[in-house]
Amino acid sequence: MKRLLFFISSLYLAASCSNVNQINRAEAIAARMQDPGTDYVAVACHRGDWRNWPENSIPAIESVIRMGADIVEIDVHMTADSVLVLCHDRDVKRTTNFRKVFRDQPDKSPLVKDLTLAEIKSLSLQRAHQAAVIDTLRMPTLREALLCAKDRICVNIDKGYDYYDKVLAITEELGVTGQVLIKGTFPIGVVKENESRHQNNMMYMPIVNLGSETGNALLDSYINQNEVPIAYEVCWKAGSAEAFTNACNRIRKQGSKIWVNTIWSSLCGGDGNDDDAAYQANDPGEVYGKYLDNGVSMIQTDRPELLIGWLKKQGRHNLNLRK
Q1: Domain boundary among 69, 100, 134
Q2: Do 19 and 115 fall into the same domain?
Q3: Structure confidence by residue, pLDDT tens digits, 243-256
Q4: Is the N or the C terminus of the chain less surrounded, counting Cβ atoms within 10 Å?
Q5: Distance CA 45, CA 60 (A)
Q6: Cα separation of 224 and 247, whole Å?
Q7: Cα 60 to Cα 155: distance, rounded to the nearest angstrom
């Protein structure tokens, strides 16, 4: 059976050995992600700990590491001078004090692609909902973020596949390629061609939107061609519970992992299925339990402490750092 983009490093192989040498935390997490037989559930944090720190900031990454998260999800865009920085939006209006810094330049573009790194670094980051400016915090580069995460937590790069070669060059330089997961909606042929140019590649995860023809066709193409990615990110809308269950059954039979997003109800089947519903429930298992019942083993959340705490009680989040 072919394993498309299934990054099996010597570190992963070593993780299955019986000696007692300790491996670093990111290696242990990557080993779980690449092991179809484990019942470990990996917790991914959406833009880091954005409730307490500016999203996609270094402290937001540090915070979720301390919480015990497995993966931090970050977003990248490229500056005018070709530096990849962490920013979810195409522009910096929501996440920085752009208007204040450039108030004397009303025609200044707020788009990341139109700003140099120096201009980006002149801006202070804001907390969620523009509640406050953190004067000492600046938007990190991808390199700075990966240095922070190195050996400590795996990284999921969103909005980054268009910059694949540049991202990979940074991960190779820092020695973190094996702990980075990148995703997209590209056809199998595009992904294969992209990876064929490199000796090492990051883990890759296709995004499958069950409510769209292209999403369903993408899932069919992987399964029908017997291409087995490390995981599928599965999204579905309200009224598609049966489609979700069917997709999970097909994916599990194939041997891949299933990643779901509980951050917004629109990504996981409507109201009652997301983090807020779990937070308000008497038992978070009323929400998260049904995902485990469907074989989900990777969950992106905005409530990492809640989810991790519940998973530990179920015996599904105990990381072994021994080889």
Answers
A1: 134
A2: no
A3: 999 999 999 999 99
A4: N
A5: 10
A6: 13
A7: 13
Residue 252: domain span:
10-83+142-313
Asked whether the beta carbons of 146 and 178 are under 8 A apart, the reply is no
Q: What is the residue-averaged pLDDT of the chain?
A: 92
What is the per-residue pLDDT for 8?
39
List the beta strands (DSSP E) in the chain: 42-46, 71-78, 84-86, 125-126, 133-134, 154-158, 180-184, 203-209, 231-235, 257-261, 298-301
Relative to beta strand 42-46, strand 298-301 is parallel
Q: Are residues 176 and 129 in the same domain?
A: no
Query: How many whole angstroms separate alpha carbon 173 and alpha carbon 182?
Result: 17
pTM higher than the cut 0.90: yes
Domain assignment of residue 218, yes or no: yes
Beta-strand pair 180-184/133-134: unpaired
Q: Does residue 52 fall inside a structural domain?
A: yes
Contact 113, 77 (CB under 8 A): yes
Hey, CA dihedral for 102, 103, 104, 106, is it positive or negative? positive
Note whether residue 4 is domain-resident: no
Q: What is the DSSP letter of 44?
A: E
Domain total in the chain: 2
Q: Is the pLDDT of residue 36 over 90?
A: no
Query: Does pLDDT of 233 surpass 80?
Result: yes
Tokens of 73: 């999800």
- What torsion do the CA atoms of 266, 271, 274, 279 make, to the nearest 10 degrees? 150
pLDDT at position 323 is 58
CB 121 within 8 A of CB 97: no
Same domain, 215 and 302: yes
